[in-house]
Design brief:
The protein has about 325 residues and is an all-alpha fold. About 80% of the residues lie in helices and about 0% in strands. The protein has one domain.
Length: about 325
Amino acid sequence: MRFGYFDRFQRIFGRVKPILENRWIRLATQIIIVSLSIFYLAWNYRDASEMLSQTTIDFRIVFGALFLTLVAVYLGAIGWGFTLLAFDPNAVWKDSIRTHLQSNLAKYIPGYAWQLIGKAYLTNKGGTPGLIVGIAMITELTLLVLLGLGLSLTFIPRDLVTQWLGFVHQLGFLSIRLIGLTLIIAVPFIMILIINRAPRLPEGFKIHFHMLLLANLSIFIGWVLFGFSFWMIARAINPIPLADLPGFMFTLAASVIIGLAIVIVPGSIGVRESIMVYFLSSLSILSPIAVMIAIISRIIVTISEITGYLIFQFTIFSRGNNKIARKS
């Protein structure tokens, strides 16, 4: 009875799994979702020539956004390293970071959850037991989602809340933000409760809580930098004041979380951008400008993930291997 919720999830997943495993159904679904997303972006970009002819991009700010995004990518890798160490103290820190950066690239491969499969395979190949790998991956994903949800609730613009829910009293709006802040603070403790209730934990299983806290901190800072770099992209195109930063934090976090739910689309390509345009348009950003911001954001993220892996592979990781070779 204690694990009834887990059994129900297994039954539901068992029914959905055959559909997800059908290659043609996946392909057709991917084509439909991506096509609708492209149509939405193109529709919002229509009649933009005159507006964009008067728009100049400040590439100094764009490069600043690229740098912050690159730091956020590394913080995500560091967060995975701390998460793995929270359950496997024998894990190699450098290898776990490399695994995360490498698996980031796999999400752009057409297919189903290649990023997760690649990370699980590489981590298990490094010596971490499969069950521990699974627990660490679920923990990392939960930290990512709950922190992103907490960030989006904390920075959700009042205009959007009023638009969706009608009239909202000031106390109700502050309550939403308080829930977001509480969630950010409580995430590690929530994870402890969830993990301790999980069935079939290995004998001698132990959670190193300080590592979980460090993972939580790394991922959270990465979220904040990612959101700030998103605002910088908009600032490079349009004179967006710093006072609008909370709206961009919300848009970035909400679009990434919703995009993660559409696991069937590689890297949430098109889906995340469409959600960004929807939220930015609700924040009074002109639709063509919103499309530009979303597309540039995707380009910067992709460049950061590729560059992040290459820098680590050919500097830190390569230098570490050379030291090992000299010792031997």
